[in-house]
């Protein structure tokens, strides 16, 4: 298989509250004025006590409405980001994803094309474009970079739990004339394992990542987030168990591809070794 790797940068539709906010901001002003009017009339007609009762219910209603609106914005933003990832995948030629995973923080996506035995990684970065005329109305835009890597370009896969290495698979042959052990501190050979709730003494975890080292001098390392929490969560938590299953699955996929690359290299080396002996008449 021919190894191919390329990058692209595309500015897609903006993702953020400015995309999904109400187009009529004057509506909020009208509602506020009506609410103030109702409160004043209640005070004047029914007295201070009933005014406080109405005020209490209004505060509760406002709180609930803002909470619902916040949840809606969060879900809508997530849906828009996923749509952009899918749009980016569709644009890639000769890559048909059979499996994909969106990182827990939606900062990147990893996808597998089983037919070509290649991996695609898409990274998302949010940039702020300042409006020179109106300082308040700064626009947020998502910029997507992607790379497609042949299985031969995969050098190492590691599972990290709170930045500690749990298990590693390493390419055990030469790639592009450069010895892999020269690039990786772990040296030659491969160690294939997995993450489980008993992998470490810690009972609580904040982060689970898959670290990939690839044959690309411009960007040799990619980190895929499978769990990212503000506060540590217990290993009995369903969120942790789901993240463990997912990271083990993708580590297993990369390990299989690395093993295939090793087997392919051994067959090529054996073939050229036989040819060399035949040419020079060596038994």
Number of beta strands = 11
Distance between the terminal alpha carbons, to the nearest Å?
31 Å
Strand content: 25-35%
Domain module count: 1
Judged by helices, strands and strand pairing, the structural class is alpha+beta
Shape: elongated
How helix-rich are the residues, as a percent range?
A: 40-55%
Order of helices and strands: EHHHEEEEEEEEHEEH
**Strand order, biggest sheet?**
1-5-4-3-2
Q: Tell me about the biggest sheet?
A: 5 strands, antiparallel
- Overall average pLDDT: 75
pLDDT < 50 stretches:
1-25, 173-192, 274-280
Rg, Å, rounded: 27 Å
Count the DSSP helices.
5
Account of the protein in words:
There is one protein chain. The chain is an alpha+beta fold. It has five helices and eleven strands, in the order E-H-H-H-E-E-E-E-E-E-E-E-H-E-E-H. The strands form three sheets. Strands 1-5-4-3-2 form a five-stranded antiparallel β-sheet, covered by helices on one side. The radius of gyration is 27 Å and the shape is elongated. Mean pLDDT is about 75; it is low at about 1-25, about 175-190 and about 275-280.
Describe this protein with a few key phrases.
5-stranded antiparallel sheet; 4-stranded antiparallel sheet; disordered N terminus; 11 strands; 5 helices; alpha+beta; 29% strand
In short:
The protein has helices spanning 17-20, 26-46, 48-91, 180-183, 238-280; strands at 7-11, 99-102, 108-113, 118-129, 139-150, 154-161, 164-170, 174-175, 178-179, 204-214, 221-234. The protein is of the alpha+beta class. Mean pLDDT is 75; it is low at 1-25, 173-192 and 274-280.
